[in-house]
Amino acid sequence: MGRAVTVATCALNQWALDFEGNLERIFRSIDIAKSRGARYRLGPELEICGYGCSDHYYESDTLLHSFQVLAKLLESPATQDIICDVGMPVLHRNVRYNCRVIFLNKKILLIRPKISLANAGNYRELRWFTPWNKARHVEEYFLPRIIQEVAGQETVPFGDAVLATKDTCLGAEICEELWAPNSPHIEMGLDGVEIFTNSSGSHHVLRKAHTRVDLVNSATAKNGGIYILANQKGCDGDRLYYDGCAMISMNGETVAQGSQFSLDDVEVLVATLDLEDVRSYRAEISSRNLAASKVNPYPRVKVNFALSCSDDVAVPTCMPIQWRHHSPEEEISLGPACWLWDYLRRSKQAGFLLPLSGGIDSSATACIVYSMCHQVCLAVKNGNADVLADARKIVNDETYVPEDPREFCKRIFTTCYMASENSSQDTCNRAKLLAEQIGSYHINLNIDVAVKAIVGIFSMVTGLTPRFSVYGGSSRENLALQNVQARIRMILAYLFAQLTLWTRGLPGGLLVLGSANVDESLRGYLTKYDCSSADINPIGGISKTDLKNFIQYCIENFQLTALRSIMSAPPTAELEPLVEGQVAQTDEADMGMTYAELSIYGKLRKIAKAGPYSMFCKLINMWKEICTPREVASKVKHFFRMYSINRHKMTTLTPSYHAENYSPDDNRFDLRPFLYNTTWSWQFRCIDKQVNALD
User: Can you give the residue ranges of the CN hydrolase domain (predicted)?
Assistant: First the structure.
């Protein structure tokens, strides 16, 4: 009868400008799709060049190499007898578009440009591409000679059209179009399109996956149909981790779910679905059918090919499944760990070095590396040849097989406790015990000699010796002495990262890991160019509250009992002198605010777009049970003073895994000045006026 269609989607770990590797992964996905009987294969957004090319999209080389890869795909026997839908940039009439190129048996069927471009948060698509604004309009696209020679075509359709096969109709969306209020699938569905496809470049944010799943399922719940979503996965060269979650949905229910986090470079989902289920579902929705009778039709590209077989009555079809979401703690354990693995293997370094202080932040970073080691051993156990080959390159041993996470951790992870006269024995013991439990190569050292040498140079030049405040020094002296310790730790971290393996007779160098959380960065509670300055930071986009929950998760799931004492200890920088052998300095006292308050300030500032006055107005209601308006005003003013004074530090912030939508990352996500008028005179005067009115 020709009613059971078999379709495939995938999540590919593409890498910006890695045309050779990207092509190989595309071929593998097509091979897997065909071997499982699929007649249509969908790939991620801009998969040929990699989504994160950024300003390389301006370069003609990027367009040239993308077409060269497309030519390889067209001429290969591997792409015969399956509709292939790939993503790449295309220049049409001197305008650059983000496109899907859909082809079958060496013939390009349609080039479909993106209509709604992502241009918020981490996305800057309008910088490089132009949206296709001609709804339901198709033009001729003149193919470059390299494609003409393979395809035997001079021109192909370019624009907003759908494909009509022998048995069904397919329409494409590209990433942001699913999130838009006027998504194309609405009108396409009314015009009889039964299969919707979406190629995405969607990155991980904590607690976001359910939103994407809900959007896909709701796309077909009201209108009926089959929805296929492909997504990039992994780190393709920057702060983002693309989190897969390829999926196939029908009539509002998920029928196939891909993994959100894994070390598999290629993951393919295949589903066989009954087109009659779509038709019968739509038949009883009278409001849909009335709207469909008035819809403006799409141009249809006829395709002499079927996604089903003529005799398919006995072909089994897929049934709905329940989507399994990760908890936030699992997301922290898996997402940054996969990102670290991609960064490590692609940077061709031999491992990581982490200054391990015995506090929550650096301990959480250590646990993420340990989780990465777990993921590597599990992938190798499950037969992942790519991961095994990468692990062998990293440890420089062609016969090595990572089986025990602790043993693998010992090879690729160095932790270093950098004590000073202001460090307590408690934090030293905590760091040592955690290092033992995760298996890292641990170093204990003391920085006092270097600190005294630096301060000695200053004293020799000026004739003055700065003192801590507890010894009668000023706040300037106190802060300067803390900063010297912090910055010496950064210098030593890089020195040991470069030479530790040399001292052990091993080749290579180590990547330095930072461990400043998103709240500390927002407040600026860090020394510029201290241990927060590193090569990469896996927790820089994660809040202190979430990190504490993650530590508890590690206690329960990795049996890291050393974390119990770390959890119970008050966060401290340990940069001021001890009092009777005990830590007197604490983070929250230093900051003048709690970490819980910082998370609220951060979300209001970035997500709610609140300036000082708006934040005050929101918080007098949120905190009315615990604070007077005058107390709220004082807290808001203090936050904005500290935030604006320290904003310059964000310009040198270590590249961090993006996990929170209130990240203060100055690179491209949170674009603000870094030289403020820190008095906020007009804004604070508005707050004071409101406080007086409320009093």
Answer: 5-275
What are the tokens at 224?
A: 């009926």
Give the C-alpha separation, 474 to 664, whole Å: 31
- Give the confidence band of 570 by pLDDT, cuts at 50, 70, 90: confident
Question: What is the residue whose two structure tokens read 């009883």?
Answer: 284
Please report the pLDDT score of residue 2 as a whole number. 63
299 vs 169, 289, 607, CA distance in Å? Answer: 11, 20, 40
Q: Under a CB-based contact definition with an 8 Å cutoff, are residues 338 and 241 in contact?
A: yes
What amino acid positions are annotated as catalytic residues?
A: 45, 114, 175, 357
User: How many helices (DSSP H) and strands (DSSP E) are in the chain?
Assistant: 24, 20
Q: Tokens for 131?
A: 């949206």
Rounded average pLDDT over 9-20: 97
Which positions ≥6 away from 409 have C-beta within 8 Å? 369, 370, 373, 438, 439, 440
Q: Which residues pair with 461 in a beta bridge?
A: none
Give CATH superfamily name and number for 4-302: Carbon-nitrogen hydrolase (3.60.110.10)
Whether 333 contacts 550, CB under 8 Å: yes
CATH topology for 328-591 is: Rossmann fold (3.40.50)
Closest CA relative to residue 261, chosen from 327, 198, 346? 327
Please state, in angstroms and rounded to a whole number, the distance separating the CA atoms of residues 97 and 201. Answer: 15
Task: Taking the CA atoms of 55, 58, 62 and 63 in sequence, report the sign of the dihedral they define.
Answer: positive
SS3 state at 149: helix
Q: What is the pTM of this model?
A: 0.94
The yes-or-no verdict on residue 581 having pLDDT over 70 is no
CA–CA dist 515, 654 (Å, integer): 9
Domain ranges of the chain: 4-302, 328-591, 592-694
Query: What is the CB neighbour count within 10 angstroms for residue 421?
Result: 12
**What DSSP line would sit under 628-671, residue for residue?**
-HHHHHHHHHHHHHHHHHHGGGGGGPPPB----TT---TTTTS-
Q: Give residue 542's pLDDT.
A: 94
DSSP H helices, 250-327, are: 275-283, 286-292
User: What dihedral angle (degrees, nearest 10) is formed by the CA atoms of 647, 651, 657, 663?
Assistant: 30
Q: How far apart are CA 5 and CA 169, in angstroms?
A: 11
Q: How far apart are CA 40 and CA 34, in angstroms?
A: 9
* Calpha distance 663→603 (Å, rounded): 9
Q: DSSP per residue over 490-543, as a string?
A: HHHHHHHHHHHHHHTT--S--EEBP---HHHHHHT-S-TTSTT-SSBBTTTTS-
Q: 309 falls in which pLDDT band (50, 70, 90)? A: confident
- Rounded to whole angstroms, the Cα distance separating 23 from 265 reads 12
Per DSSP, the three-state class of 4 is strand
In the predicted structure, residue 523 carries a pLDDT above the cut 90: no
Q: Nearest Cα to 188, choosing from 160, 221, 156, 158?
A: 160
